[in-house]
Every structure is written in structure tokens, then in C-alpha cells.
Amino acid sequence: MANNAPNIDLSDSFEKIPVKIFPDLQQGSKYAAQQVAALIRAKQKKNEKCVLGLATGSTPKSMYAELVRMHREEKLSFKNVITFNLDEYYPIDNDALQSYNRFMRLNLFDHIDINTKNIHIPNGEVKKEEIKLHCRHYEKMIEEAGGIDLQILGIGNNGHIGFNEPGSGIYSKTRLITLDNSTRIANAYEFANISEVPRLAITMGIGTIIKAKRILLMAWGEGKAPVLQKAVEGDVTEHVPASLLQDHNDVTFVVDESAASQLTRKKSPWLTGDCEWTPKMIKKAVVNMALKLQKPVLSLTNTDYNEYGLSDLLVEKGDAYEINLQVYYMLRDTITGWPAGKPGVVLPEHPERSVPYPKRVIIFSPHPDDDIISMGGTFQRLHDQGNDVHVAYQTSGNIAVTDEFVTRFLDFAVGFEEIAGIDTRKSGKILQDAQKYLARKKSNQVDTAKIRAIKGLIRRCEARATCRYVGIKETNIHFLNLPFYETGTIEKKPMGEKDIKITMELLRQIKPHQVFCAGDLSDPHGTHKVCLDIILEALRRIKNAGDEWIADCWLWLYKGAWQEWNIEEIEMAIPMSPDQVLKKRFGIFIHQSQKDMVPFQGSDSREFWQRAEARNENTANLYADLGLTHYAAMEAFVRWLY
Ligand code: F6R
């Protein structure tokens, strides 16, 4: 534990588990892979077997990719390696798209020189009456292998490790368990829809995991930040299974900056040692204090500062009154009803320039509905205020249209052909074939290119309808259909040259003064992060090429459907009236294919419009709590310097 570790420094003094923080998941994964490789090699030198406990899910993928690279390029051999996987869905065919057996072959085993006899994964095909025996046997095999030398873990949003859901005891062994509903929802992104996610799983127990000689738990992305904070800084409790690792004597958490963001040393660095009082840090400290004490910023007193641990700030910057004012003005200056700047006035503190006006604007929307969900109010204002607003839909979003939904459209189209007397022999019976295909489609079968195109068309029509609703003209709507997305599966390709070229072309054609895009800086499940990386790379290349217009192009990030910026990070807040909130709601409703059965909701089961409204209202309430004007709702943006 950190508190017993030598050379303890104050910065991690709230942490009861050693945490290594890396700038991003790539670097963290590289570190984890190096640890694994070093152990394998050390064991090889001693002619010993190396027993690894392995995890699945999105978290360890980059680590496996790095191990595969090391195998290929650095001659890392896995001949002495024995593996035991943590878990498997139950029941599931070993070859099913979502099975962890298949996952391991795809991501690791098929690409390395491990002896297949040394691979152990709980079997999702075992008969129910044989499961107990299967689990006992699994434990026995681990023991016979000499126990696990290094256990790799991820962490669930509810704190689970393996599939040990909250309530799992410290002595639990390999067993069949019922998946928490939150886990089923979180993992629904791998399946066609939530009802397809198995209700059960076989998992190693906490007792099994904790017997490992060494443990590395990885966590990426802000979604994991709250539970990571609980596991690392909270009490040891079965309600947060990962917190039970506090009692292990050789465990390290390997995380990225986003997952670490709720740790005290990141969230309130002034509590863990010296901190540099930049304006940003002052804003963060004072805003968090005001919210905690439930006081408007201008009502904070010297005593509040002292009692909240900010006496240091008082010493450096003087009186509470002065600091309060500074922070209040910073907050006030983020609020504007003019997202492209207010024409004809000089407002030096305004988040946007007032000239040129009107502006050329591109809103990049990773999926066909992110524009309206995440910045519908701002979208409308930009248009209403006379700017030349273009929308670029980056991906087709076809994966998120259910078979039931597309069947409804096919039924309509076939009926239409009949009514219109269209000779289907001539039209090639595309629709009938599609209908037949869907009727026979096995669960989890990958769609044909035609079906994907039809699903994409449905979303395209919805996006177009939204643009019409906002008032955007046809020529300002751009469907980029970026190729990285078009795999037909949840797993997407990495960003490619074509994606960047398509994006550069559009940017060069429009020469925007403002670009808005989804700023999901860390999103292990992918699409939004890749979409952002593509835009950043396109802008970087254009800048390097010396295009003149780019010097005058500002990039604003909105958050995708899942999260909001922290209040202290917001650099532009666009208020919305109750009517504008309703208008946005109806704009989101246009995306009918995404209603009710959205397969990719992450761990939040509310519909998109509900989440968007709650989030915009929450931002407005926070501003009000801090002592600023109380609006009905607000959309929030951060400016990104590239
Ligand atoms: C997977 C496993 C789980 C995951 C956890 C996080 O073998 O045991 O505990 O590590 O659910 O999942 P991801 O990595 O998809 O966020």
C-alpha cells in the first residue's frame, strides 16, 4: 500500500493503492506490456513457467497489441507462458462474436507462439449441471500451475473485478454469478441489444484473484474516474470489489490522466502538497469549494478558504473578496448568447471574436445525432444569427440501427413498390432479398454491405430531417462516411489516410472560422475518439501546409452524449430558454431509430434526449449555484488550441 511504501510523497497520500498515471492509454498499456514481458523473460532465464491471469474487455486491448508487437519485433516468446482468463459469459458459444474465448484468440493467442495447451479460459459451453465441477477444476488447475504470478485486471463502472459484482466476498472462488444490470448495460455495446447480453457469467473469485503474487489493474477514460477514486481512496468494502485489493501487498493501478481525474491529488491538488496558483487552478479550487459549501462564489469568506484547505491561496493572493471577484468574472465571461461572437461590439473578454461576421462554421458530428444531442441549442443559434453553418456527419452510424427497425422500413418500401406497380424483376429485388436476409439472420451475424447501406440511409434521412428542422440548407449538409467506421462490427479500424484526406478536403472547401467537434478525449469504446483524432490530424496537416485561413480558425469542443465538461473547464456556455430546450428535444426525437432500444447507451439507460436535458439543466443549475444568472439550460464548450 502507498502508505507503507518507501519514499512516500504527499501527492499520493490519500491513495491506499499505488497508482501510476500516464498521459494516455497507449503509454499506460505500453508500461503494462513491458511489465508482463519483463516477467516472462525473467522466468525464461530461470527456466520457469510464467503464469499470467488475463482480462478481456476494452481495457487490455492496447496492452495485448503491444505484446503482439513485442513478439513480432522483439522476439518476445510465450513458450513458457501459462494463462488463466478471469471470466466468460454464460451460456455462450466459444466462437460467438462476443465470447471471451474468441476475444483472446483475436487479440492475443492467434498472434503469438503460446502452446495452446497452456491456455485456460472458463468455458461458456459447459452444461449447467457441470459448472460447479468445472469451476472447482479451474481453481485446481491454477493451483497446480503454481498460482498466478501476475494478474491483469480491468475495473467495471460498479467496481467489479473479473465479473465479481458488488457484494462478492473476499473469499469467493471461481463460480457462476449473475451479472449486475449495470454491467449488462455497460457491455451491451458488444451485443445487438441489451436483451442479447447473457445474464450469467463464470468468473474467478476475489479470493482467486487476490492470491495472485502480483496484480496490475488498468483503467482508462473519465468514465472510470469515479469508481477508481472509490477503490483507491475509499474504504475497503465488498460494495466496491476493487477496493478489496487495498489488502494485497503487490498491486499497482495503471491509469491514464482521465481515469485519475477524481483522485484527490488531481481534483484538489492543494490538499496533497504545493500547487501552482495559476488562474485556472484558482478557478478550479474556488468553484469546487463554493459548490461543496453550497455558497455563491461572492459569499465565500476568509474562514471558508481556511477551512477548505485553501489558506495557502489566501496567503499568496490576498483577501477572499479579491479572489472571489476574480473567479466570478471568469465564470461570467464564459456565458454568451452569441456562440460565433457578437457582431458590431467590442467585448475583449467574450469567448469568441466579433469579427469576421457572419462566420463560416463546420459542426462535426461523429454519429448522425451528436450535433443535435450535444449542441442542438447552439446549432440553432449559430444558424439563426446568420452564420453559414455546415454540418459534417463523420460516420454512417449504421451499426446502431436495429434489425427490427430496418425491417419496418423494408416493409414500407416493399409495400410502396407494390402500390406503385414497380416491377421487382427490374429493380433487382433488393428489398425482398434484404427482408429475407434479416428474417433468417442469426443473432450476432455481421450485416451484409447492402443491409448496412440501408441502415446508414435511415440515419442519413434522420440527420437530413434534423438539418431541415434547424433550417440548414441541403448544400451545407455533408455525409463523410469515414471508412474507419465501416467494419460492420463494433470493432472499428484505426484512423486511416482516407479518413484524414476526406476531412481535409471538406475543411479546405469550407475554410471555416469555427469548427465544433465532439471532444471525447478519452473514450476506450472508440468512435468519438477516432473522429476527434481525425479532425486534429487534418487540422495539423493543413496548418503545416501553410493554408492561410487556418490561422483564423478556432476549434471548439463539445462533449459527446456521455459526459459534460467539469464546470471549471467550461470556456463558453450557451444559455437556453425553456422554449429552446423543447425545440432541441423535438430535434432529438427526429432520430427515431435511436429511440427506446439504443444498443450503445453505456451504463446509462436513459434515452438521449433525457440525458441531454438533464445535463444542460445541470450546467445551468451549477452556474446558478455559483451565484450567476439562473438559465433553464446551458450547453458547454472548451476551446482547443491546435
Ligand atoms: C473482463 C473483466 C471485467 C472488465 C471490466 C471492464 O475480463 O473481467 O472485469 O475488466 O468490466 O471492462 P472494460 O475494459 O470493457 O471497460
Give a brief rundown of this model.
By secondary structure, the protein is of the alpha/beta class. The chain has helices at residues 25-45, 61-74, 100-107, 131-144, 181-187, 206-210, 225-233, 264-267, 279-293, 302-307, 311-317, 320-332, 370-384, 403-420, 424-427, 430-440, 449-470, 497-510, 527-545, 578-589, 608-625, and strands at 19-22, 50-54, 81-85, 87-90, 119-120, 150-153, 175-178, 200-203, 214-219, 251-256, 360-365, 388-393, 477-479, 514-518, 554-558, 572-576, 633-640.
- Count of all domains: 3
**Broad CATH class of the largest domain:** Alpha Beta
Distance between the termini: 40 Å
> What's the mean pLDDT score?
92
Structural class: alpha/beta
Contiguous uncertain segments of 5+ residues: 1-8
Radius of gyration: 27 Å
Number of strands: 17
CATH architecture title of the largest domain: 3-Layer(aba) Sandwich
Hetero ligands? fructose -6-phosphate
Tell me the strand order in the biggest sheet.
Answer: 1-10-9-6-2-3-5
Percent in strands = 5-15%
Major sheet summary line: 7 strands, parallel
* CATH fold descriptor of the largest domain: Rossmann fold
- Share of helical residues: 25-40%
Tell me the overall shape.
globular
Separate helix tally: 21
Describe it:
The structure is a single chain. This protein folds into 3 domains: 19-264, 3-Layer(aba) Sandwich (Rossmann fold); 275-332, no CATH class; 360-399 and 452-597 and 604-640, 3-Layer(aba) Sandwich (Rossmann fold), CATH 3.40.50. The chain contains 21 helices and 17 strands. It has helices at residues 25-45, 61-74, 100-107, 131-144, 181-187, 206-210, 225-233, 264-267, 279-293, 302-307, 311-317, 320-332, 370-384, 403-420, 424-427, 430-440, 449-470, 497-510, 527-545, 578-589, 608-625; strands at residues 19-22, 50-54, 81-85, 87-90, 119-120, 150-153, 175-178, 200-203, 214-219, 251-256, 360-365, 388-393, 477-479, 514-518, 554-558, 572-576, 633-640. The strands form 3 sheets. It has a 7-stranded parallel sheet with strand order 1-10-9-6-2-3-5, with helices on both faces. The radius of gyration is 27 Å and the shape is globular. The model is unreliable at 1-8 (pLDDT under 50). The structure holds fructose -6-phosphate. Residues 55-59, 86-87, 154-156, 160-163 line the site of fructose -6-phosphate.
